[in-house]
């Protein structure tokens, strides 16, 4: 169950990062409120998952989901650069997440 909660926490990190971008430096009220709401929910779910998962594993996977997911949102939705080196970097991060998951007891 903790892994599923952690996955949702990571997805919500992507959501709050995207809404923070849309807030334009917290100058737009609705994206700002959404950012704050999803930040709190993401942290709450991360905290819950840490009840049974090791700190290093939970935090690394949560952050990694957010990093890779935000990277993909940037490319797919915001039209950011899909340079091959950037894609390689995301693949390396994803590889690290997979290794972290399979080596956690």
UniProtKB/TrEMBL annotation:
- Where is it chiefly localized? membrane
Cross-referenced SUPFAM superfamilies, in alphabetical order?
A: Multidrug resistance efflux transporter EmrE (SSF103481)
Gene3D superfamilies this protein is in? Answer: 1.10.3730.20
Q: What is the membrane topology here?
A: Multi-pass membrane protein
In which compartments does the protein localize?
Cell membrane
Write down the Pfam families for this protein, in alphabetical order. Multi_Drug_Res
As one GO molecular function, the record gives: transmembrane transporter activity
Keywords annotated in UniProt: Cell membrane, Membrane, Transmembrane, Transmembrane helix, Transport
Look up keyword Transmembrane and say if it applies.
yes
Q: Which GO terms describe its cellular component?
A: plasma membrane
| Residue intervals passing through the bilayer | 27-46, 58-79, 85-103
Superkingdom is Bacteria
Task: Please list the GO biological process terms of this entry.
Answer: xenobiotic detoxification by transmembrane export across the plasma membrane
What InterPro entries does its record include? EmrE-like, Small_drug/metabolite_transptr, Small_multidrug_res
Q: Which family does it belong to?
A: Belongs to the drug/metabolite transporter (DMT) superfamily. Small multidrug resistance (SMR) (TC 2.A.7.1) family. Gdx/SugE subfamily.
What is the name of this protein?
A: Guanidinium exporter
Q: To which species is this protein native? A: Acinetobacter indicus CIP 110367
């Amino acid at each position: 169950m903790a892994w599923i909660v952690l996955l949702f926490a990571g997805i919500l990190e992507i959501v709050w990062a995207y809404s923070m971008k849309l807030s334009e430096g917290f100058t737009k009220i609705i994206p700002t409120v959404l950012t704050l709401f999803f930040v709190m929910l993401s942290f709450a779910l991360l905290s819950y998952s840490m009840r049974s998962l090791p700190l290093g594993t939970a935090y690394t996977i949560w952050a990694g989901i957010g990093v890779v997911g935000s990277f993909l949102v940037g490319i797919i939705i915001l039209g950011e650069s899909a340079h091959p080196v950037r894609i390689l970097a995301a693949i390396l991060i994803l590889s690290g997440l997979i290794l972290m998951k399979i080596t956690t007891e």
